[in-house]
Specification:
The structure holds two protein chains of two kinds. Helices cover about 65% and strands about 0% of the residues of chain A. Chain A has seven helices and two strands, in the order ααααββααα. In chain A, helix 3 packs across helix 4 and helix 5 packs antiparallel against helix 6. Chain A is elongated and about 60 Å long. In chain B, helix 3 runs antiparallel to helix 4 and helix 5 packs across helix 7. Chain B is mostly helical. Chain B has two domains: about 270 residues, no CATH class; about 40 residues. The chains are: A mainly alpha, B mainly alpha.
């Protein structure tokens, strides 16, 4: 493959990976600190923490799968492996979170931002505690979280496999892992700033209002990161086994 | 049979993961950290003086990433020194691991304990104008539980990382090892264990234990924030009383979440490898990868169905909100 095509492909894949990461953070139901006190719907932790945890789980699986091939791992299959790994992590976390809400605190999962769950068509308002913003992870937030996990894992693993593959950037395994994590975290933090606290998923009005800004910012951040990676490739500083 | 030993090591990893995340959650309850700690920080400002250990270190994900990476780095340095010595004397390399992993974990926990002490003292000093004292017995009495719970979590994570990056040698199946080095694997699992502990176990501490005098079965309203439960079964509550409660439900549930994740992640990858004829002549990496992906999607669908069933059960059993 022509060198210029390789550089462009790496840059474009990093940008796509970054945008998918940002999309994932917006899709995930994040309740933050209020959710830990059952004052808000979603998972009881911050955006960046949760998304990074999910993405590195996907990255771990992607690295194992990428090592199946001696050279030139199949990009799509490795990225999908990462996506599924991240998706499972989100799924189990949300499920056990719901178990603790229901049996540990006696709370019914319900949304605080919509009156009717768009997927199950069940009413939410009469199950919500007054003067809270919902609690637990209702079905629509669960599905939104699964999709978010898939998207984020795909983005992170895509960046990783483009960096580690011999036919593209050819970084060492550890460097590719750290760089992928770094680009991912940068996009996740930008998205967390954009969300500004809590978000329930794709049904939340905040999602539609803020997604365009979020994706544009992550496009710029990922492009900057991609340019630095291409410079590293051009100057040959990180080729092969050099850390 | 090398494939059976692969599955056996996988179960060991899942078991260690269960223990690691359970102790992670209990440690974040003993030294009140992360999300529910926002209430412990708010309480003096609203006039509720408390005797909790206010450990305001970052989020649990990054805090555990740091502890585990310190442990992994020291363990790796010791392994790099010890393994050639053992190989020269023709002794088993396991001796190096048994020495390196606990020593690394101990250093990681000591650093964590130092960070906790600085955090508590700093945070409570900032609350001086709300007349919140720094109770020295609270300060001294919680350092050891924090360090020991952290040690349990970190040693399990370091052991998991060690097994995963040496799985090919341990099980006899070539190609089963993860290509990442030991400290990077520790970073990855430390981040994950902190993220999961923060997402699940914090609910039991924050909603139930911190506001135990509020009615069971409702979310904590915004007007209740800061009014944490400061009196225990007998006398004034400290964070040590919190861990005993959360160890009954929140801790094990959190451990279950991480154990299941690690189990299903490794299990589907190994099944995929077997489908692609691992350690055989017809090794097909594409089928191996696709098999793992297919199983993973199947598990996700089952999870969505289970979550929906659970939600429906809760709605029918508990019914709409009663009261004002």
């Amino acid at each position: 493959m022509e060198p210029i095509t390789v550089y462009l492909l790496v840059l474009v894949c990093i940008i796509i990976g970054g945008i998918l990461s940002s999309l994932a953070v917006h899709l995930m139901p994040v309740g933050g600190a209020p959710a830990a006190m059952a004052t808000a719907t979603g998972i009881a932790t911050g955006c960046v923490m949760l998304m990074t945890g999910a993405a590195v789980t996907g990255l771990f699986t992607a690295s194992t799968v990428a090592s199946f091939w001696v050279t030139n791992p199949n990009v799509i299959l490795v990225a999908l492996s990462g996506a599924v790994g991240s998706m499972l992590m989100m799924g189990f976390t949300m499920f056990v979170g719901n178990l603790i809400y229901i049996f540990g605190a006696g709370i019914v999962p319900c949304s605080g931002r919509v009156a009717v769950d768009p997927i199950t068509k069940e009413s939410q308002t009469e199950y919500k505690t007054p003067r809270t913003d919902g609690h637990g992870v209702p079905t629509v937030s669960f599905v939104s979280g699964i999709l978010g996990g898939f998207s984020g894992g795909f983005g992170g693993a895509l960046i990783y496999v483009m960096l580690v593959s011999d036919s593209y950037a050819h970084f060492s395994v550890a460097t590719a892992g750290i760089v992928a994590m770094g680009i991912f975290i940068a996009n996740a933090i930008i998205a967390a700033y954009n969300i500004g606290g809590t978000i329930e998923g794709f049904h939340d009005p905040k999602f539609k209002a803020r997604i365009r800004t979020g994706l544009t910012c992550s496009l710029i951040v990922s492009a900057l990161c991609g340019v630095i990676v291409v410079i590293a490739m051009l100057t040959g500083t990180l080729v092969g086994g050099v850390m | 049979m090398p494939v059976i030993s692969l599955f056996a090591w996988m179960l060991v990893i899942a078991f260690l993961a269960f223990i690691a995340c359970m102790f992670e959650d209990l440690e974040s309850d003993i030294g009140s950290q992360s999300n529910p700690n926002s209430q412990v920080q708010l309480a003096p400002e609203m006039g509720y003086i408390h005797r909790y250990f206010n450990k305001a270190i970052s989020g649990e994900g990054l805090s555990y990433a740091l502890s585990c990476t310190i442990a992994g780095t020291i363990a790796m340095l010791m392994l790099l020194k010890l393994e050639p010595m053992l190989a020269a004397k023709d002794m088993s390399l396991g001796y190096a691991a048994v020495l390196a992993i606990p020593v690394g974990a101990a250093v990681g926990s000591l650093v964590h304990m130092v960070r906790s002490s600085v955090c508590h003292v700093g945070r409570e000093a900032a609350h001086k104008r709300f007349e919140q004292p720094i109770y020295l017995d609270v300060f001294y009495g919680h350092l050891l539980p924090i360090a020991t719970h952290n040690f349990m979590a970190v040693i399990c994570i370091t052991a998991i990382a060690y097994i995963q990056c040496n799985l090919g040698i341990l099980s006899g199946v070539t190609g089963a090892s993860n290509p990442f080095p030991l400290p990077l694997l520790c970073l990855i699992w430390g981040l994950t264990v902190g993220a999961i502990g923060s997402s699940t176990g914090d609910i039991h501490y924050g909603t139930e234990r911190e506001f135990q005098d509020k009615p069971f079965g409702e979310g904590r309203r915004v007007v209740y924030h800061g009014q944490i439960c400061r009196y225990g079964d007998c006398g004034i509550r400290t964070s040590k009383d919190v861990a005993a409660f959360c160890a009954k439900y929140g801790g094990p549930a959190t451990g279950l979440a991480f154990g299941l994740i690690v189990l299903f992640e490794n299990w589907r990858t190994v099944i995929g490898m077997l489908l692609g004829d691992l350690a055989g002549p017809a090794w097909n990496p594409s089928i191996a990868a696709a098999g793992g992906i297919g199983i993973g999607i199947g598990i996700a669908i089952v999870l969505i169905i289970l979550a929906r069933t659970l939600e429906k059960w809760a709605r029918n059993k508990y019914g709409p909100f009663v009261g004002e």
